[in-house]
Amino acid sequence: MFKLNFKIALRNLWRNKGFTFINIGGLAIGMACCLMLLLYVNYEMSYDRQFKNIDKIYITALNLKFNGKLATTMALPNKLSKAAMEELPGFKRSARASNENNVKLYSHGRDNFKLSAFFVDPDFIKIFDYHFIYGDANTALNDPASVIINETTAKKLFGNENPIGQRISYDGKRELKVSAVIEDLPKNVSMQFDVLHPWAFFDQLNPQDKENGWGAITCFTFFELKDKVSVESTNQLLQKFIVNKEHDLKEMTYEPFIFPFAKMHLYEDFQNGKSVGGRIDQVRLFIFLAFCVLLIACINYMNLSTARSEKRAREVGVRKALGSTRKTIMSQFMIESLILSFVAMLIAFALLESTLPYFNNLLDIKIVINYGSAPIWITLLSLVLITGLLAGSYPAFYLSSFIPVKVLKGFKGSAGSLSIRKTLVVFQFTLSICMIISAIVIYNQIQYMRDKPLGFDAAALAQIDLEGELTKPGKMEIFKNELKRSGAIESATEYASSFTRGGNITGDISWPNKPKNDVSIVSYRSTGFNFANTAGVKIVAGRDFSSEFPADTATSLLLNQEAVKLMQLKNPVGTIITWGDNPPLKVVGVVQDFFNESLGAKVSPTVYYYNVRKSGTLLLKLNTRQSLTASLDTIKQVSQRLNPAYPVEIKLVSEGLAEKIKSEKLLSALSNIFGGFAIFISCLGLLGLALYMAEQRSKEISIRKVLGANLSDILVLLNKDFMKLVIISNLIAIPVAFILVSKWLDKYDYKISVNPWPFVLALLTSIIIAVLTVSLQTFKVAKANAVDALKYE
User: Fold this and answer.
1) Least confident span in 520-534, 538-552, 659-673
2) Fewer CB in a 10 Å sphere around the end CB: N or C, the chain?
3) 62 - beta bridge partners?
4) What are phi and psi of 50, to 5 degrees?
């Protein structure tokens, strides 16, 4: 019986090539989109899953009272790791890691490379079981002068030689010995690095760090838990651990807790001390998008199959009259659906393979299909079965329900089937319109964040790392003067770190009339002279740091407007601020708030102090009167002459800002691409239905033409039913989309208002697309010769 049904299915599909092509095309595109999105979702959810004990690895987070709210940071006091291991139960291993991915110069012979590095405790490489090509994990970090490098770094420095025991230079200052080589990390590992140093080496470079109190948050802290340890009870023990260590912190909210490291990539957003999501929201959205695109493709199949019911009715009637059961007929239609699904999957897989490199390039990721993985084949088979059964279920139930006597006398489609088809079309277009509206709103929000006034001149601002000869005060001034004299820059100043990165925070700042119970956290950044002028930041009161005022190097501060607001200072210039053990500091100026670290969130209260020794970046205000290329070339030439050992990397601040909206750009790109495919699939369905309706009404149209109807009347007649469905779809989609985009915008402090234009544009777009799609077929029918349709009557 199966063989017979299979043959019948193939004959029917071959006989109706047009409908088969539309069905397979819609299903193939839907499946390809669904597979692509599911591969991306799997990639995101696989972050850090390569480590054997990942379910027992926890990163420690810290809740702080931040301007009336609980804020969460991953940086902890460097004393916590050892103290918790000694005094608290449940921990198998602990390790610190520097809270910055340090980029330094590493040299071997004449080869010089800037590489990213972490300083870690020896147990770090036992907690994270990296695969060692050379060396031993038990001893690799025992010597402060030892260093672990990855495979790519080993090839850069040593070619194909075994690098164990070889010497490399660190920042031109220290000689280190390679103790191990590990495999390159895949892109879906959170902590990316080229080099690992022992924490003991960090202590040698920063001896003052050992003296930090419990209030200083300076490093990441990782724990590996023992078997069967309760995370909840461990967090209860940790909650007051830090404040019990230092009396000065008793009045502050200073609560550490452990958080699964496996969740850090997807659940990185915290509010009021608790995880509230993050990338996982985007991942869930993509899962929903994958389901929607596939569902739209399945609805196409249902609509086209039931629309052809008149042609299949006599076949069903004859087969039933000859003794076929409803179950047998249902199985035939399901087999047809599964065959279409299987063929569509083959085409979808070919589309997937051909477009995957472009997808990887677009998202800057590396998704590879592992053909040896059982889950891949299970997913493909499941998708074929689910799609085939879902798409074929309604046609099978509907077509197999025909009564032989009625259909053999003359079949007329039931009103019920027509209403179901209309419902499916409405549902299909509702999903597509929601995607159009969401894509428009996401794009507008990205444009708003990108174009809104930043409060500084990003277009003319570049930065380079301060390293080598440039860390010496005399050489630094020569470098600045050379660049000014050459016309490459207008001014320059030192800055704490990369201008678009976050920085340090403190709760140890006091101001006049500060309430005793105020535990506000203030950000602080080091800078050099002419900071405001170089960055293009407006001074709203007082003045900038200047070499004309010697006191600026030791006892002066700049505040931003948010800091003035926090401190409730009516006349901030001249106010005396106390900060830890430092001498009293005097506010000499107030700068306008500017958005350099986050484009969608409020500016943090920030103080700026002069300290070129603690600054890691040189900000350069480029000369706008000459070309950007000429300025950058000059900077490179001067840097190579004065600092030849260090390859200069000039970074435009505008490029760093673009990184800030990378996730929004990703969401926008995927919404546009897959939303476009969803609309295309919906149009295929409309085209198929229009084809059927035009075929059914060809005689009616011919009679109307004979009686004098013109082309425009016939086109309106054929299009108006479809336009009603599109209008209904918009009426449903608009309020749904409004709720969805409003909720998405809630996460931004600075956002667009949801105005009617995206909804009007989606309405017009959907109508135009539907009219064009339907008219492709109806125009041909309306122009046909009436005699051809009526000559047999």
Assistant:
1) 659-673
2) C
3) 73, 256
4) -75, -20
Task: Collect all residues with Cβ–Cβ distance below 8 Å to 661 and sequence separation of at least 6.
Answer: 446, 449, 450, 599, 600
Helix%, strand%, coil% for the chain, nearest 5: 50, 20, 30
Q: Are strands 111-120 and 102-108 parallel, antiparallel or unpaired?
A: antiparallel
φ, ψ at 253 (rounded to 5°): -85, 110
- The label of the residue with tokens 């069903």 reads 316
| Residue 315 in tokens | 């076949």
Spell out where 236-373 has E strands.
Answer: 254-260, 269-271, 274-277
Dig out the tokens for 237 from the structure.
């023990």
Q: Is 323 left (phi over 0), alpha (psi -120 to 50) or beta?
A: left
Is residue 709 within 8 A of residue 324, CB to CB? The reply is: no
The amino acid at residue 666 is L
Residue 545: strand, helix, or coil: coil
Contact by Cβ (8 Å): 603, 67? no
Work out whether strand 606-610 and strand 522-527 pair parallel, antiparallel, or are unpaired: parallel
DSSP 159: T
Give the distance between the most distant pair of CA atoms in the chain: 106
Confidence of residue 194 (pLDDT cuts 50, 70, 90): very high
Which contacts qualify for 361-364: CB closer than 8 Å, 24 or more apart? Answer: 362/669, 363/40, 363/666, 363/669
Q: CA Rg, the chain, in Å? A: 34
CB 369 within 8 A of CB 353: yes
Measured distance CA(325)–CA(659) in Å, rounded: 63
Shortest CA distance to 558 belongs to which of 534, 592, 601?
A: 592
pLDDT tens-place string over residues 737-758: 999 889 888 888 888 888 888 8
Residues in the chain: 793
Residue 552 DSSP class: G
Name the DSSP letter for residue 525.
E
Q: What one-character-per-residue DSSP string does 425-485 give?
A: HHHHHHHHHHHHHHHHHHHHHHHHHHHS--SS--TTEEEEE--GGGGSHHHHHHHHHHHHH
C-alpha 424: how far from chain center? 32
How many whole angstroms separate alpha carbon 404 and alpha carbon 401? 9
**Which structure tokens are listed for 621?**
């205000």
- In this structure, the strands spanning 585-591 and 556-560 are parallel
Residue 261 and residue 231 in contact, taking contact as beta carbons nearer than 8 Å = no
In the structure encoding, which two tokens stand for residue 527, read together? Answer: 């800078």
Cα 178 to Cα 320: distance, rounded to the nearest angstrom:
80
Which single residue is written with the structure tokens 């900077």?
Answer: 635
pLDDT band at 415 (very low <50, low <70, confident <90, very high): very low
CB 674 within 8 A of CB 289: yes
More confident residue, 349 or 789: 349
Helices (H), 324-414: 326-363, 374-399, 404-409
DSSP 318: H
Q: What DSSP letter does each residue of 70-128 carry, written as one string?
A: EEEES-B-TTHHHHHHHHSSSEEEEEEEESS-EEEEEEETTEEEEEEEEEE-TTHHHHS
- pLDDT value of position 404: 61
pTM confidence score:
0.81
Burial label for 534, CB within 10 Å (0-12, 13-18, 19+), is buried
Helix or strand run (H / E) with residue 617: strand 617-622
DSSP string covering 684-703, please? HHHHHHHHHHHHHTHHHHHH
- pLDDT at 172 (0 to 100): 80
Q: Are 356 and 349 in contact (CB under 8 A)?
A: no
Residues 153/90, Cβ–Cβ less than 8 Å: no
* HSE (side-chain half, CA atoms, 13 Å) at 669: 14
- What is the spatial distance between Cα 97 and Cα 656, in angstroms, rounded to a whole number? 25
Tokens of 514: 């500060």
Per the CB < 8 A criterion, the answer to whether 523 and 489 are in contact is: no
